Amino acid sequence: MPVAAQTAAPETYPAAAQGDGATTKGYNLSRWAEDWSAYRDPAKRDDILDRLKYLPLDEDGDIYLTLSGEARLRMNLTSNPQLIEGPEQRQDIVRLVGGADLHIGDNLRFYGEIAHGQLSGENVGTPSGSLRNSFVRQQYFAEAKGRVGEVDLGIRYGRQEFTDGPNLLISQRDNNTIRFVLNGTRAWARTPKMRATLFDFETTDLGNGGLGDDVPDKNRRFSGVSAGFVLPPHWLGGSSLYIDPFFWRRRNRVGTWGGVVSPAVRYYAGARLWGDVGPVALDWTLVHQYGQFNDRPIRAWQAFAAQTVRLGADKSAPRIGVHVDYGSGGGGYDNGTLRNAYAPFGNNIYFSYGLFLTATNLIAVAPNISFQPITGVRASLEYQFSWRDDARDAVYRANYTPYVGTERVAGKAVAQLARAQIVYAISPRLTLTTRAEYLQAQEVLKTAGYRNSAFLATWLSFRF
User: Fold this and answer.
1) From first to last of its 464 residues, what are the pLDDT tens digits of the chain?
2) Residue 148, Cβ neighbours under 10 Å: how many?
3) 429 vs 26, 134, 359, 379, CA distance in Å?
4) Which of 70, 173, 174 is nearest to 115 (CA)?
5) Per the confidence metrics, is the pTM higher than 0.90?
6) Neighbouring residues of 286: CB distance < 8 A, sequence distance ≥ 6
7) Do 420 and 381 contact (CB within 8 A), yes or no?
8) Could you tell me how far CA 340 lies from the centroid of its own chain?
């Protein structure tokens, strides 16, 4: 059986807060963020797959290879796709991923990952390269790191996943078959109490064919700095809190709003406060966006506040909570200041796996509960109320295209969404997930002619 990855040494910045996502029972969404060096000890390798996590290539074991893989089988069912009355959509999806992580001592590594995405079914339209892709070099990079005094330094160059920021602004977009990857450089410096990351990337234009048609997109560039600070644990009577300020720039030569295509530059200045205070887990983000689109100024805001309370001393005890989210809107259909908020590549499934809405011209309030009915099973229930911020602007889908006509109708209420999910951890390597959602159109969507929609998905994921 897999063992949990070793935790970072006490003199380094906490591993869970380095901007690479959470590692659970050894596994991370970004497979290069996993540390399987514990398998240097042969006694900890329980089966043949364990041995693939640490393959020594020299006598001392300082040069070793870690192999990883994933197979995901999934089916999505959606009634009234795009909220338009019509035939049901069924998506049959296969994801296959294989990766290799070569460590040369403690200071140098090379990582490579290929993926295959297959999509078939009924009423699927023309799938993008993130849903159907014969083969893609999903990630490949070189990394060097070292230590100078009390400072850990590192640099990584190549195609890579980047998630050093609030999940609703930047994420791997694991809901896709092929994940969101960027091309360029990431460099970092870390001490036990603070860190900083500098980056400069181009996005990736994904084709549907073989290994040669997934190329850097010269039209879209994302760069900036993300930082982090460990807050004193005695604050609030005992806590484990982090504050992560950031400043980013997104340049897009083919930006689109209100049917207009024009170069755009958007800056993001904000901060995220997150962590635990006793039984309370919180994750708060505030970001101001400004810049220029088609000779028009951009002035937008996003705010995300999620908090839950554990109802018991045990870590598996039920949790109740609410998240309140805001994305400004306005200006999409006139010539004044553009106030539409925009996430660089955020996690839209937070609002719905059906990708009905996004945090643009949106106000959302969602009470929720999560609990563990039996060992190995985690369930969650949520009900979201959604309004638009500016009644003169449209309601937007997850890909930032508007629901046509919503900009011409009055009202604020957009939709109510009920969501339920069950995750069964059959083993550390194998999970079965079922997700159900129902969107009930409210005043704005109904007046513009849109319909209710149900979404059901189930997927089996195996990782090693």
Assistant:
1) 554 444 444 478 999 999 999 998 899 999 999 999 989 888 888 888 999 999 999 988 899 999 999 999 999 999 999 999 999 999 999 999 999 999 999 999 999 999 999 999 999 989 999 999 999 999 999 999 999 999 999 999 999 999 999 999 999 999 999 999 999 999 999 999 999 999 999 999 999 998 889 999 999 999 999 999 999 988 877 889 999 999 999 999 998 887 788 899 999 999 999 999 999 999 999 999 999 998 899 999 999 999 999 999 888 899 999 999 999 999 988 889 999 999 999 999 999 999 999 999 999 999 999 999 999 999 999 999 999 999 999 999 999 999 999 999 999 999 999 999 999 999 999 999 999 999 999 999 999 999 999 999 999 999 99
2) 8
3) 10, 25, 33, 19
4) 70
5) yes
6) 270, 271, 301, 302, 303
7) yes
8) 21
The residue assigned the tokens 């002619």 is 449
As given in the structure block, the two tokens for residue 263 are: 């170069």
